[in-house]
Every structure is written in C-alpha cells, then in structure tokens.
Amino acid sequence: MSSGLSGSRVLLTGARGFLGSHLARRLSQEGAEVHAVSRHAAPKGAGYRWWQSNLGDPASVERLFEETKPDVVYHLAGHVTAAPGVEHVAPTFESLLASSVWVLLAAVKAKPRRVVLVGSASETVLRGQDPTPASPYMAAKWMASAYGRMFHVLYDLPVVVARPVMIYGPGQPKEKLLPSVITSMLKGEAPKLSSGRFAPDWLYVDDVIDGLYRAAWYKEAPGANVAIGSGTLTSVRDMVGHAVRLIREQRGSCPEPLFGALPDRPAEDYDPADTDHAFQKLGFRAQTPVDDGLRHTIAWLEEQLRKA
Question: Which residue, 166, 226, 288, 299, shows the most beta carbons closer than 10 Å to its own?
C-alpha cells in the first residue's frame, strides 16, 4: 500500500483556521506542495502557496481548481459556531454547505485522487426517524456530509468524510472552552462554568491532524464517514480537573473553577468515536495521553500570556 503525500499537490481550504494551520504545517513537513486557501491574506512565514478566494462563489471555486490542479483536496473552510441564533443560518449555509457543494462539483471535473471533507462529531446526535439539528452549524455540516457521500456513490468521487471529536491544543482560539478556562486559571482568576456534566470525546490536535493526513491516502478510506477520536467520553468537569492538577503541580496553586455558575446548554448526547472503524478505514489510533496534551496546551497558553 502506498502511503503519504510527499510530492502531491494539495489544495487546503480554511488554511488560516485552527485545524487548517496545523494541517498545512504537517502537509508541508511531509513534502506536499501545499496550496492554501482563505478569504484573507497569507500569514507571515506561511511557507506555501497562498490563494485568496470566496468559496461561496462557484465560479471562483472552479477557477481555483483549474489553476491549482490538485491531487488531493481538503475542505476545512467554514463559519464555526454551535450557537443556535438565526443570524448564523446564512453564514453557515454559504460557508459550510454551499461551499462544500461547489468544491465537490469542481472536484468531479478536476478528478483529484482524494477529497477529504471535515465533518463534525455533532452529526452523531442526529438519530431517529425525524432528527432535528440543534444549530445552523450542525444542520450545514450534516447536509455537507450527505452531499459528500452522494458524490462518492453517484459520481465516483473518492470522498472521505472525517469527523473530529472535541479538539484541544496549541493555537486554538482563546474563546473556546479549554483555552478560556486555562487562561483564566493561569491569571489566578477562577473561571465560571456550567455544571461540567457535558461529556464529549476529547482529542489532542496533533492526533486529529494525523487522522486527517491518513484520510488523504489510506486506500480503505474513500466512501467512509469516520469519527476521529479517542473512543472515551470525559466530562468537562473531569477535563478541567486534569488541567487544575497539572497547573498546581507546576505552579503550586491554581484557583478552583466555579462549576454551576453558568447555566447548562441544552443537553446533547455524544457518542465516543468508533476507534476500530477508524483503524480499519484510516489505520488511525490516538497516541497522545490527556495529561501530555494538556501540558502542551498549558505551556502554549503560558507563552501567549508572556507575549501579551
């Protein structure tokens, strides 16, 4: 079985995002020719070819494919928020669903070896005879994955839908749960949280990137809808507790988080990732223990505070 993407021309949308920036670095390290796409200009020292493009415009997407002639496509771009507000309907539709359709249509014509759509672990809660998404983001991701599977079956496009679980690690936006909580504790401030009962499957960002990387070349992957996770559910309370312990080990003290200070969001039951399925389709298993991942995350956030 051939492996790796060395020498491959890779088109990567959403390259300035948390996952996209990590994946671009990994692809470059592996010897791929990275064509990074974003609405915004290239960051300093990117080290790969940068394209500014509006993925909500089908003509722009088609031109992008014609100019880059990709061997592999990763579609990560999109408006990311789990908030239920109506103001998120149009942005998620355009940036998540419409852009996915335009990318898939362009790929049918360009015929890359692989198209990797990055889905969401939240799709697993849409069960039953009449599933109803809890947010515009969830609805758009759900339908984008459905389009990807349809393109694979009807139009013989080698699509893989990779669904990362709850991701954490260096570079994550500071408003996300763990960066926000850890930053508060590093400042000596007690973070306010809900009950902490919510229990997702957490995965360190380097492991997520390894799963995404494998999705682009592993021969069993096309047509698969694969959750990339650890296979273990851990409550927010326990995850924050791990961070508290590690900060106290390093610093000697850490403020106690204020659980119950905020209301819980509507309950969502998440499944742990099917690790056997991920190994079968991608040859992937998580490698980073929670304590190691949190230590790297805490160290990065401490560095950001020093720079501020």
Answer: 226
What mean pLDDT comes out for the span 216-223?
95
Q: Does the residue 89 lie in any domain?
A: yes
Looking at residue 268, what is its pLDDT?
62
Any domain includes 237? no
Please state, in angstroms and rounded to a whole number, the distance separating the CA atoms of residues 183 and 145.
34
DSSP 267: P
Q: How far apart are CA 226 and CA 234, in angstroms?
A: 20
Distance CA 23, CA 213 (A): 8
CB hemisphere CA count around 189 (13 angstroms): 9
Q: Domain of residue 153: give its range.
A: 9-164
Count of structural domains, the chain = 1
Confidence of residue 37 (pLDDT cuts 50, 70, 90): very high
pTM of the model: 0.93
Q: Are 235 and 198 in contact (CB under 8 A)?
A: yes
How many DSSP H helices and E strands does the chain contain? 10, 9
Q: Is residue 32 part of a domain?
A: yes
Q: What is the CATH number of the domain that holds 109?
A: 3.40.50.720
* Distance in angstroms (rounded) separating the CA atoms of residues 222 and 128: 26
pLDDT tens digits for range 291-301: 999 999 999 99
